[in-house]
Amino acid sequence: MNTAAESMPGSADTPIDLTGVTAYTAGVVRLAQAKGLRPTWGQPRGRARRIILDAVGPHGAFGSITIGRASGKVLRAEVIHGNDAKDPCHATGTNAVRALLMGVTLSACRQGCTAESSIACRP
After folding, report:
1. Of the ranges 39-48, 51-60, 109-118, which is most confident?
2. Mean pLDDT of 8-20
3. How many CB atoms lie within 10 A of CB 104?
4. Number of CB atoms found within 10 A of residue 11's CB
5. E strands of the chain, at which residues?
6. 100 partner at 20 to 30 Å CA-CA among 39, 50, 65, 119?
7. Least confident segment among 27-31, 50-54, 111-115
8. Going by C-beta distance under 8 Å and a sequence separation of 6 or more, which residues neighbour residue 107?
9. How, if at all, do strands 89-92 and 74-80 pair?
10. DSSP 3-state assignment of 112?
11. How far is Cα 102 from Cα 34, in angstroms, rounded to an integer?
């Protein structure tokens, strides 16, 4: 396990502290950040911790990554590709979560967007 705190500048409002997660998990969180998902810690639940994902604007992707509290490993993830998405995308296991995040595209949506759909908010 990675025991040193690692900051990720540019996350939602504050850097995310990755103390206690594996190096692979830290890489998955960095990938989420590179995809514009602004990872931040959510409230822990039971034996898991959750990282909340939320791109800018109403048409950006959002969801969560669940990490084992004791192991620091990625367990599963859910990503919804904007408020007008039909179905959420789910992945279980570290490789599947990485593949899911690789499929996320950077959102063109901006804060305060009033377009009716993600197609309409393209610049």
Report:
1. 39-48
2. 63
3. 21
4. 18
5. 40-41, 48-54, 62-68, 74-80, 89-92
6. 119
7. 111-115
8. 36, 55, 56, 57, 59, 60, 61, 82, 118
9. antiparallel
10. coil
11. 10
- pLDDT tens figures, 65-85: 999 999 999 999 999 887 666
> Which 3 state secondary structure label does DSSP give 41?
strand
Q: Tokens 């989420």 appear where? A: 32
Total number of residues shown for the chain: 123
Phi then psi for residue 37, to 5 deg, are -90, 0
- Which residue bears the tokens 């998405």? 85
Task: Give the pLDDT confidence score for residue 107 in this predicted structure.
Answer: 76
Cβ 123 vs Cβ 107: under 8 Å: no
Compute φ and ψ for 29, nearest 5 degrees: -65, -40
For 66, the token pair is 């669940």
Contact in structure between 106 and 123 (CB atoms under 8 Å): no
Give the orientation angle of helix 23-34 with respect to helix 94-102, to 10 degrees: 20
